Predict the 3D structure of the following.
Amino acid sequence: MSVARLGKAARLQGKTLVFRDAAVADAEFILGLRTDEAKSRHLSRTSGALADQQAWLAAYAQRDGEAYFVIESLAGDRLGTVRLYDARMVDGHASFCWGSWILSDAAPSSAAIESALMVYAYALDTLGFTNAHFQVNLANERVCAFHERFGAQRVSQDDVEIEYTLANAAIREAMKRYARFLPDPLKVSI
Ligand SMILES: CC(C)(COP(=O)(O)OP(=O)(O)OC[C@H]1O[C@@H](n2cnc3c(N)ncnc32)[C@H](O)[C@@H]1OP(=O)(O)O)[C@@H](O)C(=O)NCCC(=O)NCCS
């Protein structure tokens, strides 16, 4: 089986959230989140320069194999970001990685579960992936606990981060368990 393609989408509509393809005009908003001291503690460092963020987003728009979304409310207020990238075969399964996941303090408390479910619904039901993999900083205990409640398994660990995988059955089980957070099917506009 060949690895599924990680395509961008213009817009995904969930129950209370929208994912919109990130654009150069989002640079200031994203920079604000990524340079927030509390939020960025466990993320890779971002340059504080607006021009660098604009250039990163312009290069992203030209790049295949990656989907970077701004998470919004249905009313269009920007609430955060999430990114899908690094499609590859893992033990014979088409697996995608996700991260750059940040929610602003304005996001409702259901936004974490809903946005994670939107990532999985898009990757599995639209793009055809079966499994997921990602890394979480060792000290980011709250996020580790979040993923472990979704069925993520630790596969390795070094001094800095934990490598997780989510098997297809675990993703499907989580999508069923938290089905009330998401419309079925997710509304996708390519
Ligand atoms: C990562 C991030 C988006 C997660 O969002 P979050 O709101 O912190 O997620 P939480 O784990 O607190 O979950 C939100 C709520 O859903 C609840 N919840 C989460 N998973 C749940 C589950 N499986 N079942 C029931 N409730 C659950 C939590 O208890 C919490 O409820 P509360 O608001 O009443 O306390 C956010 O912490 C963030 O922006 N962090 C900074 C950047 C970062 O570290 N990103 C991750 C990089 S890997």
Notes: The beta strands are 11-13, 17-21, 67-73, 78-90, 93-103, 131-137, 153-157, 161-166, 187-189.
